[in-house]
Design brief:
The complex is a heterodimer of chains A (about 325) and B (about 325). Chain A is mainly alpha-helical. Chain A contains 14 helices and 4 strands. In chain A, the strands form 2 sheets. Chain A has a two-stranded antiparallel sheet. Chain A has a two-stranded antiparallel sheet with strand order 3-4. The radius of gyration of chain A is 24 Å and the shape is globular. Chain B has one domain: MetI-like (MetI-like fold). Chain B is globular. Classes of the chains: A mainly alpha (about 325), B mainly alpha (about 325).
Chain lengths: ~325, ~325
């Protein structure tokens, strides 16, 4: 079992290394001129050339990658040997944004907590809601609660999340003024404002995701409820609640955990749409801003961090398998 | 994109080459292929048939958009006489001449825009789905059939591709790649943008289907009919093309039926982020995004693009569900 953990951890590290190469290549080979993407609309040829030199984009690709990767592991120095202009970027250094005059790592560190709050709240909401409705639908298979829940979840599942978010914003905030216009404060500063701002983003993300989990949970439950051991559990007189939760739901949990882990990982990389609509200063909005401003170092950094979240989430899910499914432990 | 995960379990449906379960005693026992049995099950499903009908209508409307618009007497031409003086709003809402209303600012007929938009949207998602599935089936089959090192490399590439934040990359690479596509000879503007969407939907979409196909082929290649082909000395090419790939249609069809509506929503999401075609060739997503901005002053404008998009996606999802049930004989009978 320990061997499996070590092996899985090793393959995660290999994946991360491969990822860093791919992300680097993506943004240095695909653009016709990467240096042109380091400053926004006010760009002049002088600035482009200066950035090309400062970011080392005139060097061979292998050397560029080495400098970039070394920066992540050990930090790096910009404008080396230029006296006062020289500055260091401590590890993990993802690069420097010349248009925002800040280390990419700092920009991302500022944005990450917002996204984590959004993801965590939405996750709790959609899992609670999705699992509950899924179980209810499965237990009432073919009867009206099942039909209603399946109908609702299919419609919710078919709505693009930007549409849901914008409608919530327009109807509840702009037209009915039930809530103030979103203005993000960290929970440590102003808990009430934080909650008031976050409630709609949480609902937006949870709404479409929950629909998927309702369907998935229902499918899983319907399948396991037909197994012989469920009949055995009932026959030996277990409470229906125990049969449902400890036998049926538990046995069908693996695909749900897989999906949940991945969705959470993806979400931690930035909920681009929701953050954009509700003006939350998280990773997603930072990403959109850097695309609009052509801030290549930030885009590269966010891509790497977002993909890392997904790889780590995959690893965690694999570890969770051992807890959920004893067969994985034995294998 | 968790939608794909559902298909994992459905792909474990018995391979379609399995002998068909014997028909009920009432019917005379003559052989039916698994495909015919699935089609019979699908035909009995009223929701599925209604969805299929709706989809066929939408596709026909899209194909014959020029004819339909002429019959209905609407055009996509701008008409400034229909908009208010400051140019922001139409003079009237939906009328007999313009049943779905007028686009603010330009005075274009919304019905005509939706009909022509259906062409662009459906063209993008159909091409993207076909491309995604072709790449996925090819690479998945190659990975499973080759075993050994190539299999490991390809599986690793699949895993790696799945870790990329798709929406972020589709947004970030949009301008860069569109310029590249123009540079290699595609017409500038919308054709390049459409090509970008199709290409990159496929670039990020193929690993899901490749994984499913790989799993399916690994179980197929141990079966007797493949062994028989090997024993008869069939070439690897022949085994892949005539023994393995034809047996993959069930999972592929199920996967296609959830990919297509997902791409329609995805295109709309990208339109919201200003990635995609411009106002001269609007997709449904683009029309929806434009109309949301006017929701407060002109709510009727939102109704039709939103309705068209949601109804179409819903119809595809309902049909997809039914196809999955029909192809998996165990489903729905537990």
């Amino acid at each position: 079992m320990l061997g499996y953990v070590v092996k899985r951890f090793g393959s995660m590290l290999v994946m991360l290394a491969g990822l860093s190469v791919m992300v680097f290549l993506l943004f240095s080979v695909l653009p016709a001129d990467p240096a042109r993407l380091t400053c926004g609309k006010t760009c002049t040829p002088d600035v482009v050339e200066a950035n090309r030199q400062r970011l080392g984009l005139d060097k061979p690709l292998v050397e560029q990658y080495a400098v970039w990767a070394k920066g992540i592991v050990a930090g790096r120095t910009f404008n080396e040997g230029q006296g006062a202009a020289e500055f260091t970027c401590p590890a993990p250094c993802l690069g420097y944004s010349f248009s925002q005059q800040e280390n990419v790592t700092d920009l991302i560190t500022e944005a990450v907590p917002v996204t984590i709050w959004l993801a965590a709240g939405a996750f709790v909401l959609w899992m609670t809601f999705g699992l509950t409705t899924g179980v209810i639908a499965a237990l009432n298979r073919g009867r009206w609660p099942d039909v209603v829940l399946q109908g609702i979840s299919l419609v919710a599942y078919s709505l693009p999340s930007f549409f849901v978010g914008l409608m919530l914003l327009i109807l509840l905030i702009v037209q009915m003024s039930l809530l103030p216009y979103p203005d993000y404060y960290p929970p440590s500063e102003d808990l009430k404002k934080f909650l008031v701002t976050m409630v709609l983003p949480w609902v937006t993300v949870a709404f479409t995701s929950a629909a998927f989990y309702t369907r998935l949970t229902r499918t899983q439950m319907v399948e396991t409820m037909g197994e012989d051991y469920i009949r055995t559990a009932r026959a030996k007189g277990l409470a229906e609640r125990t049969v449902t939760v400890k036998h049926a739901l538990r046995a069908g949990l693996t695909p749900i955990v897989t999906a949940a882990g991945l969705d959470l990982g993806i979400l931690l990389g930035g909920a681009i749409i929701t953050e954009q609509i509700f003006n939350l200063p998280g990773m997603g909005r930072l990403a959109v801003e850097s695309v609009v401003d052509s801030d290549l170092p930030v885009i590269t950094g966010i891509t790497l961090v977002a993909a890392t979240f997904i790889i780590v989430a995959n690893f965690v899910v694999d570890m969770l398998y051992m807890v959920i499914d004893p067969r994985v432990r034995l294998a | 994109m968790s939608a794909e995960l559902v298909s994992d379990e459905s792909s474990s449906a018995p391979p379609t080459s399995a002998p068909a379960p014997s028909a009920p005693a009432a019917a005379p026992a003559h052989g039916r292929s698994p495909g015919q049995l699935a089609w019979r099950r699908l035909r009995r499903n009223k929701v599925a048939m209604a969805s299929l009908f709706l989809i066929v209508v939408i596709v026909l409307l899209a194909i014959f958009a020029p004819l339909v618009t002429r019959l209905l007497g609407v055009t996509v031409d701008a008409d400034s006489s229909l908009v208010s003086e400051d140019g922001s709003l139409p003079i009237s809402g939906p009328t007999l001449a313009h049943p779905f209303g007028i686009e603010p600012g330009t005075g274009r007929d919304v019905l005509a825009l939706l009909l022509y938009g259906a062409r662009v949207t459906l063209f993008i998602v159909l091409c993207a789905t076909v491309l995604t599935i072709t790449i996925g089936v090819l690479i998945g089959t190659i990975a499973a059939a080759s075993r050994g090192r190539l299999d490991r490399i390809l599986s690793w590439v699949m895993d790696l591709t799945l870790t990329f934040p798709q929406l972020l990359l589709l947004l970030a690479l949009s301008n860069v790649i569109t310029q590249r596509l123009t540079a290699i000879g595609l017409p500038e503007g919308n054709p390049s943008r459409i090509a970008y969407l199709i290409l990159f939907f496929a670039v990020f979409g193929w690993p899901y289907i490749a994984r499913i196909v790989r799993g399916q082929v690994i179980s197929l290649r141990e079966r007797e009919f493949v062994e028989a082909a090997v024993a008869m000395g069939a070439s690897r090419r022949r085994i892949v093309l005539t023994e393995l790939i034809p047996n993959l249609w069930a999972p592929v069809l199920v996967y296609a039926s959830i990919t297509l509506p997902a791409f329609i929503s995805y295109e709309a999401t990208l339109a919201f982020l200003n990635v995609g075609t411009d106002a001269s060739m609007p997709t449904w997503g683009k029309l929806l995004q434009d109309s949301i901005g006017y929701f407060q002053v002109y709510p009727a404008y939102l109704l039709f693009p939103a309705g068209a998009l949601v109804v179409t996606v819903l119809a595809f999802n309902l049909l997809g569900d039914a196809v999955r049930d029909a192809l998996d004989p165990r489903a729905g009978r537990v």
